[in-house]
Design goal:
375 residues; alpha/beta; UDP-galactose 4-epimerase, domain 1; seven-stranded parallel β-sheet; 41% helix; globular
């Protein structure tokens, strides 16, 4: 059985690496009929050390143990030692095998795999922190390598985690962007390398699936909140939670008017597993919440939930007459075709994320005192 945090040592619990058991049970409760197709099978997963990938891996192992699925997971990691240090309860699980390698060039593990989830992405492409063309090429090369692997391993279904960035800039007059919206990032916008890479990767997945006889599933991800969300990256909700935890004012770098929406990570896991097992091949699904809120409203939610006296600082004033930017999906396809919905509210999701990180902060302090006392 997978260890709970209570079964781990002082050092293993640093940062509260385990996900909340209630969240994992939530995933099981809403996916229970799906799992028979994975019984006794193997799944290959890239990106398992990231926010989304670790939620998928941990929920898979939790469910497999409780349903006695007897499945195995082979995980690709560029740095297995870092994976082991950060997520020891997943790394040491008997159903997990870790393959060392870069997604662009990894050696193929032996055996057959019924399912593949390609959740690895080039973070520099997503955040514009690198030469755009290099980031684009790395992301596409990784997808190509995973598809070559799938072609040789009798894969039945492959899910690719794409992004809402494939639509380019959402017009401010369009409240929610649907999968059939005929838009794309502008080719002259070199900062849109991430969106272009995801579009090309979607095309490659669908083409390879049709040519080589496996089902290619596409999940276009928007914005999320939940335990393990980085607090030091370019995620507004994570940055706001960090500010509140540190006792600082919540800082909004823009004018606070853009609209976003946030799906809680346990619901995200339910959506991804449902799309993998029941989704229609080659039919992209938006994955996210349809509840649009401004960045300023999000900051006020974090402020209220943190129950601190921290203020809110907004760096810029809105420009009169300028429409607010939007990044909000329509999810009718997932709702009507797969019966999916956002089950956990934004406020509850922020509260759970804040509490998880606050507990992680407390554990880091305890571990630090433990280390100093035993020097």
């Amino acid at each position: 059985m997978i260890k709970s945090c209570g079964d781990l040592s002082m050092h293993e619990t640093a940062g509260v690496r385990c996900l909340p058991q209630g969240d994992l049970q939530h995933v099981l409760d809403h996916t229970r009929p799906l799992w028979e197709s994975l019984r006794g099978e193997s799944i290959f997963l890239t990106g398992a050390t990231g926010f989304i990938g670790s939620w998928l891996l941990e929920s898979l192992l939790w469910i497999s143990d409780r349903l006695n699925l007897g499945c195995t997971a082979v995980v690709l990691s560029r740095t297995p030692d870092a994976f082991r240090a950060r997520l020891p309860h997943l790394h040491h699980h008997p159903a997990v095998s870790v393959v060392a390698g870069d997604v662009q060039s990894f050696n193929f593990p032996e055996g057959e795999f019924a399912f593949v989830i390609h959740a690895a992405t080039d973070r520099t492409a997503a955040f514009g922190g690198d030469v755009p063309l290099g980031a684009f090429e790395r992301d596409v090369a990784g997808t190509r390598r995973v598809l070559e692997f799938a072609r040789t391993r009798s894969v039945r279904r492959l899910l690719f985690t794409s992004s809402g960035a494939v639509y380019g800039h959402q017009p401010p007059t369009l409240s929610h962007v649907a999968e059939d919206y005929p838009s794309a990032p502008l080719p002259e916008d070199i900062g849109s390398a991430y969106g272009h890479a995801k579009r090309v990767s979607e095309l490659m997945c669908i083409a390879h699936g049709r040519s080589h006889g496996f089902d290619a599933l596409i999940a276009r991800l928007f914005a999320f909140v939940g335990p393990r969300l980085p607090l030091d990256a370019h995620y507004a909700v994570g940055n706001f939670i960090r500010d509140a935890l540190d006792g600082n004012s919540i800082r909004i770098s823009g004018d606070g008017t853009p609209y976003r929406s946030y799906l809680y990570a346990a619901d995200l896991s339910i959506w991804i597993w449902t799309i993998l097992f029941r989704g229609v091949p080659a039919l992209p699904y938006n994955v996210g919440s349809t509840r649009a809120i401004t960045i300023s409203e999000l900051a006020r939610i974090v402020q209220s939930i943190s129950q601190t006296s921290c203020g809110i600082e907004i760096a810029a004033n809105p420009i009169p007459g300028l429409p607010a930017q939007r990044y909000v999906p329509a999810t009718t396809r997932a709702e009507q075709g797969l019966g999916l919905e956002a089950l956990i509210s934004l406020e509850e999701g922020v509260r759970r994320t804040f509490d998880w990180h606050r507990e992680a902060q407390w554990h880091r302090g305890i571990e630090g005192r433990y280390d100093r006392a035993n020097r």
